[in-house]
Amino acid sequence: MAGVVVTNVEKAFGSTKVIHGINVDITDGEFVVLVGPSGCGKSTLLRMIAGLEEITGGVIKIGGREVNHVPPKDRDVAMVFQNYALYPHMTVYDNMAFSLKLRKADKSLIEERVRKAADILNLSQLLQRYPRQLSGGQRQRVAMGRAIVRDPQVFLFDEPLSNLDAKLRVAMRTEIKALHQRLKTTTVYVTHDQVEAMTMADRIVVMHDGIVEQIGTPLELYDHPANMFVAGFIGSPAMNFIPGTLRRTGGAAVLEAAGGVRVTLPGSVPGSDGQKVTLGTRPEHLSIEADGDGIRGSILVVEPTGAETQIVVEAAEQQVVAVFSERHHFQPGAPIILRPRPEAMHLFDTASGRHLASR
Amino acid sequence: MASIPAIPYQSSWRSRLVENKNFLGAVFMIPAAGILLVFLAWPLLRGIWLGFTNATLGREGRFIGLGNFISLAQDSVFWLSVFNTFFYTVIASVAKFALGLWLALLLNHNMPFKAQIRAFILLPYIVPTVLSALAWLWMYDAQFSVISWLLTQLGLIDRYIDFLGDAWNARLSLIVANVWRGIPFIAITLLAGLQTISPSLYEAAALDGATASQRFWHVTMPLLMPIIAIVMTFSVLFTFTDFQLIYSMTKGGPVNATHLMATLSFQRAIPGGQMGEGAAISTAMIPFLLAAVLFTYFGMHRRKWQQGARDD
Lengths: 359, 312
Ligand SMILES: Nc1ncnc2c1ncn2[C@@H]1O[C@H](COP(=O)(O)OP(=O)(O)O)[C@@H](O)[C@H]1O
Ligand SMILES: [Mg+2]
Known about the structure:
The complex is a heterodimer. By secondary structure, chain A is α+β, with helices and mostly antiparallel strands. In chain A, 24% of the residues lie in helices and 36% in strands. In chain A, a hairpin with a 2-residue loop joins strand 11 (240-249) and strand 12. Bound molecules: adenosine-5'-diphosphate and magnesium ion (MG).
């Protein structure tokens, strides 16, 4: 096992630069998730760690050793591909045994390792099947089996669950997490799904257009997003953003937004009078008020899911989503005043998108 | 509301017959079967029949049983042609396969002017055989051979090579020409096969610790095998029955040294006038061709890993 240190790493395909200097320090045994919208460079970064892609600039170290020019086979990393990349002409057993056979490992050792991995992954009954004869979830497990049989320094996963149906995805999420807790192998996991990132990661690296927006534990990112991108990307349903103008009168601060919306802010918020700011508030941090200021609007849609009820409110010339776990009687078209909980409010500078201060 | 008249339910035997899949299938196959029968089976059967007669050019002939085959069995020229055919087929096929695969692997890499090179590779295949035979004839010419000229200029030989005048030289020269002509077909087909192999398999193998040659033997070759089986069967069939190249370059000479069964058959039947004997030589090729086809049939037989069926 080993840590992975990525320092100022850049990547260009020809003249197109896709990764612009990334720094990530992954400690030994950690489960780190790279998350970001499609095309932001997650796979490219992962493939550079694996050695499948040249590193244009910067340094990647695995276990303290610089690997920039080390070929993939000598990096001692295992990767699970999005399409699984199982060898179609080999049985499940041979797929898992392949790397050990190449290393001329003892036959009994191979047998033992493969059986053990198959046991962990519930594949024991399928060892003589060919990949074509397996379901998506089974193939996914074989791909993982192939990785764990090798007992590598680092596991790399590139969107391993994106070809599975929703239910299986949730089950496999748990399985991978449990596997990591059992093996404690350093893991870098790529996904575009923030729920996957939140539920699985020790730490999340949020990427966007080839840069790192923020690194932190799931709750750090949720509670203290560094900017509007992270705030909007992490959390489901997504954070509401209400752009407006900051007004300071004496010790008080107020956000004035379109449609006559006024939200009182804690007097301690930074920012100057007249500054263009955006209020960020999560749907679950809104409360219903009878009167006073707040986000005034009318109910557009009511979506009960049983455990909670989500409403979409037309306010400040946009749609604001709110979620309540207690039951209210909502009437589409009825007026409503929503007030963000002051301690869970976020204020961003509209121009730069940067967080002005938490709370 | 207007009532809709019910469609009368027909259950006459005719309507049931017309709905029957097997019956319809048979009906639709009749034209194709007819065409095959008239244009393939008939000439083939007629050829085989001729082999059992003493027909000559212009005379119908009568059934003589195995007469032609018995006399061929004692005919050293026939046995020479059998040897030549096998020699030609085996050496040329192996060479075509090796070079074709090598070329396909090269072309499967990223390289500048890839599209142009691929098009260029096809040239020998596009040029009519007779035309390329003429070109080779010129290159193999005893006095004007560009190959001999080059080798003398390089100081490697001091006398022009008699490419087509010596038995072994002629056999090898024909094989070279055949290989040259056959490579594009194999290279392009194998290239198409290579391109169906997902790059992530190579990446997975690389991460699994496979060297380039291990990736070739453990990933490329097994996955290419089904296509190799097809393309090599066709190649063997075409080479075994080759006629044009031989006939336009040596006509089987010198002194029958390069006769293949196909050229000897033609030689005996048309210029020689012995239709029955020529047909018998052709007929003698059938078992070998059949063996080649059966070999492929089993070679090409869907491998276990290609089958999608689940066994539970
Ligand atoms: N081999 C390549 N050649 C050129 N551009 C590439 C190549 N691979 C990826 N890219 C580009 O790099 C960017 C990042 O790609 P990728 O890492 O696959 O994104 P992600 O995995 O985050 O969806 C994309 O804009 C993509 O078009
Ligand atoms: Mg990707």
